[in-house]
Amino acid sequence: MSEIIASTYEIVARIGAGGGGVVYLANHLRLGKRVVLKADKRKITTRPELLRREVDILKDLSHPYIPQVYDFFVENDVVYTVMDYIEGESLDNPLKRGERYPQAQVIKWARQLLEALQYLHSPIHGNPPKGYVHSDIKPANLMRRPNNDICLIDFNIALALGEENVIGCSAGYASPEHYGLDFSTDGAGTATIARGTDTVARGDETVTLAVNSSSSSSMRKRAVLPDVRSDIYSVGATLYHLLSGQRPSRSALEVVPLSTQEFSPQIVHIISKSMNPNPDLRYQTAEEMLYDLNHLHENDPRLIKWKKGRHVAAGAFGAFLVAGVACAFLGLRRMQISESWLKMAEYSRTALSEGDTVAAIDYALQAIPEKSSLFVPPYPAEAQLALTDALGVYDLSDGFKTDRALELPAAPFKLAASPQGSRFAAVYAFEAAVFEMEDQEKIASLPIQESALSDCLFVDEDRIVYAGADGVSVYDLEKGEAVWTGEAATTLALSADASRVAAVDRDAERVVVYQASDGQVVAERSFDGKHLPVAANDIFADPEDALFALNADGTLLAASFSDGALMILDVEDPEGDMILFDESQYRHFEGGFCGKYLAFAAGGTGDALFGMVDTMEASYLGGFESQDAFHLKAGEDGIYLATGSLLERVEVKEGAEAQIEEQELAYAENAYLTGFAIGQDYILTSMEDGSFAFYDSGAHLSSLEAVDVAYDFLEITADHAILGSRNDPVLRLMKLEGHEDAQLLKYDARYVHDEARISADGKTAMLFSNFGFRIYDMDGSLVTEVEIPDPDTIYDQQFRKEDDESYLEVIWYDGTVRCYSAQDGTVVSEETREAPDKDLEEEFTTDRYRIASSLHDAPQVYDLKSGKFVASLEADSYLTYVTQVGEYLITEYISTSGDRYGILLDEDLQKLAYLPNLCDVMDGETLVFDYESGNLRQSRLYSIRELVTLGEKY
Amino acid sequence: MGLLMNEMLFYGGIALAAAALLAGLIFFCISQVIGTRLMAQLDSEYGPRVDEKKQKKTKKR
Q1: Do A267 and A258 contact (CB within 8 A), yes or no?
Q2: Is residue A382 part of a domain?
Q3: Subunit contact B1:A908, Cβ cutoff 8 A
Q4: Domain identity same for A447 and A545
């Protein structure tokens, strides 16, 4: 018959026994469920009221890894604890069979155990801060359930009650404190006396405490109670056994650490720490130990290393990515800036070609920063080139240079310059504007007849006669008021003495002649039914087909008419009229009076005609015809006739028979002249190819500019020139510049030579060609002139400078080499060498480059160190010299047309400046230029900062 | 040289960024494989990782 306990529980079986008592499996008779009864025979000293309270608290314990305590009672002096029946096997049984558990499994159970202890130890019950200490944690007290979870059993109610004489102490699993040993930090490992006497020895799993009395006053007496850290020790020992299969040593000091080869180092460390003899050095709470067990992955060195590697890699790749993006952005920004600067340089060149020097300099300056930095690239070579060209610092020739551009409201019909050149007037739709020549200040705006025929002429510097809107008018520019106004008129003529003005209104059949001073009508003449040639629509165009001119004193008027008639009208006496042509096939006339002569040019469908009439003798002196049109200007300063490419001055040589003589003034190669203006010392011409040129008084070409603009209006004074086009409202204003301050040497310009060189000592200049040479000293005195024999067989000439010695080396094809002194022209040496290679190849070397120059190909530049090809230089010219000046290279060329020039290059072979007429480089830094006017001039190299300063001052 | 430097910075930067991106992608792919294997090994040593939040929720009775 089964035993009934407390009338409630029927003992089913005895399932275990231990130091604390016997464990029975029982049936709860009322609930009908299996429970565990743990009978403990040890004496309870707790007062009943406290006992009841604690039982009630314990009954509230609820955790998945702790069996539920249902009841607690005393019967027959036996304390019974009623708990959940935990199905399964305790963990010690397989250990006894020699089995071992996998590490991962042990860790899982360890976590569950610690969670249970965390719950158990927490001071949530009754009297904080105390929690409950199990005190007997070991594999035997861990049940492995069917679901593979564990349950911590054998909960010692007595200890939970704080009974001091009831302490479980399983060898190997019990902490040193269980034995009364205190290895804490302040205890310094001193063996202390445990309070109390002994414990109950129960089988081989418990140890009887030895009770020792203190025999030495030096030993500290101290009460040692197991606490949560003791449970921690027991957990560690339990894990130790579960993993290794070996129960740890009873003495904490003798526990052999687990092998890190067999088990994870982290686990070994956790167990070692939990089993530290010094409780102060163990985990202080189950939570701490559980934390480490829950973070095994994160704290694993391999994972840490892997993560660290990823972080480092992420940082590195990220840094490279950012660096790459930053570089790309920086490069893009710099490219954009450089691109904009190249555009500015292009705009500068365009503005310069249009004659707007100010805009050209301004654009070029915009492309040159004050300083470069990481974000600001260095300025492009094109910018320096554009600035140099705009400033013209290396153009030391005397002559007219473009000063600036003046934009009118509309394209001009007419241009006129005052006699002294201090002012100029432009006629456009429909206004005549007068400007100061020097600063282009507009000083008058005069409304004119709405016709492209409307004329405007300077009476003198201060008065202007123009086809005013209200009639022909003379306007005083100083006073700013009209002097007089006559009838409506468009076409005007002014006598050379400025006393009379003839005026015709469009195709009217009469002319009125006024006194220029007061507008009194001197005469009116009818054209007898004829009229000047006028376009059907004269609003926008003046074909300029009419000859309409007064002679010097205004007594004769030459006029051409629409029917091809050409007459000289006596202003005051019709009887004195002369009819050159009554009618003709000519539809275009030009010309005027020069003294007593009328010079005229007529053009039509056939050949053009030039003729001269002696108005005094009323005789035709003669002339000539041409297939090409004539351009004729006649005035008191002379008769000037252009046809084809030639411009001549025509004079009448008096004698028995007057003869017409011609003197060449200008010849334009490869282009027909379309217009010209005669100045004091220079002649300005425009050509059909869109270029214009200046010639000096010796008919030498002074300058030529190809601008792709057909200039229809040309005016030139002593030191200014104005060019205008019917199709462009922008006037090109030019100014005469002289560079005598840069003069090095003046020589006879008639001496023909190919090259000019300065001797090394700077005392003489040698001008030479194959035919010979001249040597001048620096004050312009001719030292000597020498003819070179057999010029046709000369292979090459080279001017050599060696230290202070200079000589001209002449090489003939037969190998003869003769050297002439640059001091006095004497032969310093002569020898015969091997016949030279006819390919005429030369080689130049600089610090960085080797430059190979041949006769037929562009010079090739190679890197001096690697020999790799770098660039080609000028393709259409022959490279004659290369001079290195610091980081710059000065390359000298001779073009196919025989022009000499130089190009300044930077260290990357980019063009920095064009050096027209460069002939020599002295002292490695002084440029020497040779001009056809017979001048050798010098200039230094300008740095970019100097150029910028010049540009800003301009 | 200034113009060449601009192009070098721009294209070099693009190349560097592209190379870093590509190398990073390759590295992280390889690293991910290594990491996965490492996690599997750690799981075999330590058992599955503990999701503490989930654990707290499921452990409450």
Answers
A1: yes
A2: yes
A3: yes
A4: yes
Contact A922, A902 (CB under 8 A): no
pLDDT digits (tens, 9 = 90+) for A148-159: 999 988 766 545
A446 lies in the same domain as A331 = no
CA atoms within 13 A on the CB side of A755: 24
B8 close contact with A: CB closer than 8 A: yes
Are both A411 and A381 inside the same structural domain?
A: no
Q: Given the DSSP bridges, would you call strands A142-144 and A150-152 parallel, antiparallel or unpaired? A: antiparallel
- Over 60: is that where the pLDDT of A924 sits? yes
A255 and A248 Cβ atoms separated by less than 8 Å: yes
pLDDT tens profile A823-854: 999 999 999 988 887 766 788 999 999 999 88
- Whether residue A890 is contained in a domain is answered as no
Gap from A767 CA to chain B (nearest CA, Å): 39
Q: Is residue A289 located within the same domain as residue A310? A: no
Q: Does an H or E element contain A389, and which? A: helix A381-391
- By CB neighbour count within 10 A (0-12 exposed, 13-18 middle, 19+ buried), where does A763 fall? middle
* Chain centroid offset of residue A287 CA: 63
Whether residues A226 and A320 share a domain: the answer is no
**Res A226: pLDDT:** 76
Domain count, chain B: 1
Chain B partners of A908 at a C-beta cutoff of 8 Å?
Answer: 1
Rounded Cα distance between A111 and A429, Å, is 104
Q: Kindly state whether residue B2 falls inside one of the protein's structural domains.
A: no
Q: What residues make up the domain containing A539?
A: 399-737
- Answer whether residue B42 is part of any domain: yes
User: pLDDT tens digit string along B15-40?
Assistant: 999 999 999 999 999 999 999 999 99
What SS3 class is residue A546?
coil
Residue in A closest to B32 by C-alpha: A310
Same domain, A594 and A733: yes
Q: Over the range A863-896, which residues count as b (16 or more CB within 10 Å of their CB) and which as e?
A: eeeeeeebeebbeebbbbbbbbeeebbbbbbeee
**Residue B39 has which token pair?**
């996690």
Within A284-300, residue ranges assigned H as helices are 286-294, 296-299
Q: Residue A584 sits in a domain of what CATH number?
A: 2.130.10.10
Residue A415: which H helix or E strand, with range?
strand A412-417
Asked if residue A794 belongs to a domain, the reply is no
Per the structure, how many domains does chain A have? Answer: 3
Q: What interface predicted TM-score (ipTM) does this complex get?
A: 0.90
Query: In this structure, is residue B32 part of a structural domain?
Result: yes
> B26 touching A, CB under 8 A?
no
Q: For residue range A437-475, what is the model confidence (pLDDT) as tens digits? A: 999 999 999 999 999 999 999 999 999 999 999 999 999
Please say if the pLDDT value at position A57 is more than 80. no
Q: Would residue B26 count as lying in a domain?
A: yes
> Are A538 and A513 within one domain?
yes
pLDDT at A52: 66
Contact A104 B44 (CB under 8 A): yes
Most confident of A70-79, A84-93, A192-201, B46-55: A84-93
For residue B28, what are the domain limits? 21-61
Least confident of A183-197, A236-250, A410-424, A455-469: A183-197
Q: Which two tokens stand for residue A826?
A: 């004497």
Identify the band that residue A435 occupies on the pLDDT scale cut at 50, 70 and 90: very high
Of the candidates A451, A635, A453, A467, the one whose C-alpha atom is nearest the C-alpha of residue A558 is: A635
H or E element, residue A510: strand A510-515
Cα angle: A135, vertex A136, A140; to 5 degrees: 160
Tell me: do A571 and A557 sit in the same domain: yes
Question: Which is nearest to A413 in space by CA: A402, A429, A424?
Answer: A429
Query: With 60 as the cut, is the pLDDT of residue A176 above it?
Result: yes
Is the CB of B20 inside 8 Å of chain A's CB atoms?
yes
